Amino acid sequence: MRLGFDVGGTKTDAVAVAPDGEIVARLRRPTGWGADAVVGTIADAVVALCADIGHAPSELDSIGIGIPGQVAEGTARISHAVNLGIETLDLGAAVGPLFGVPVRAENDVKAAAVGAFALRRRARAREASGSLAYLNLGTGVAAGIVRDGRLWRGARGTAGEVGHIPVDPRGPRCRCGQRGCIEALAGGGAVAQRWGEPGILPVRDVFDAADAGDPTADGLRRDLAYGVAAAVRILVLTEDAETVVLGGGLTALGDRLLAPLVAELEASAAESTFLRSLHLPERIELLPPGSPAAALGAALIGATAHEQEVLAHG
């Protein structure tokens, strides 16, 4: 039995995964702030999940943790998880000894890519083949890439960081210092900042205002669609990803997000025979709302103690 955790800035999603890859238990907990609180959140969830499945923690095979920030490959050492109040933390040393179980960690978006691949393959009863790009549209924009069932991190772990690729030299300034990055156009945080109106769900407010005819909101929505379309094109043109799965908080908009995105892709394809040949709109899928992709991917990654292969049987 393997446990997987998706540690977010406000909540932690946790799953127990049987040897055949089936999720047999799931729970959510508020995420604490700071290293000690994050470790406490994970530890409490381990105990609760084990109670649900009727196993002692010592009987677990592994624990995998998806978490924001940078993760040293093949370890549970994280750094710069600023949304959690963590500068550096070795989750292996902090969590493993509590239960006597091996612990692995991975960046949350990369973990979600692994989980999305596994869920899609399981739903279609396919073997681990082909490639998938998971494009996370949340406060920021980033992607994870799976090639033939294996997570591809790149030489220094930055494969998939499409959010900081400039696509509009006259676009808004990005927090990375460049101008016109995909994230500056399509990241929820950037859209909210440019909108400038208070709200619990500012991107939804932008879409509502655009539907009501507000020209500023309509421009922000068009920029968002342009940025996401650029990310899709980049992922397909550089990786030839068979499928680009869209996930993250902005995908709760569903068809309201998908419609302008498809329209943007179709408009660019109308000007290019080459782009038409890629059939980009047909290669996009939305991750179902509430999907446990990141927690599942973390569980699968956690089971790989000696190599990066993540989906041989998961």
UniProtKB/TrEMBL annotation:
Domain of life according to the entry: Bacteria
InterPro entries attached to this UniProt entry: ATPase_NBD, ROK
Any Pfam family matching the protein: ROK
Spans traversing the lipid bilayer: none
UniProt cross-references to PANTHER family, sorted A to Z: BIFUNCTIONAL UDP-N-ACETYLGLUCOSAMINE 2-EPIMERASE_N-ACETYLMANNOSAMINE KINASE, ROK (REPRESSOR, ORF, KINASE) FAMILY
Family indicated by similarity: Belongs to the ROK (NagC/XylR) family.
Name of the protein in question: ROK family protein
Annotated source species: Candidatus Microbacterium phytovorans
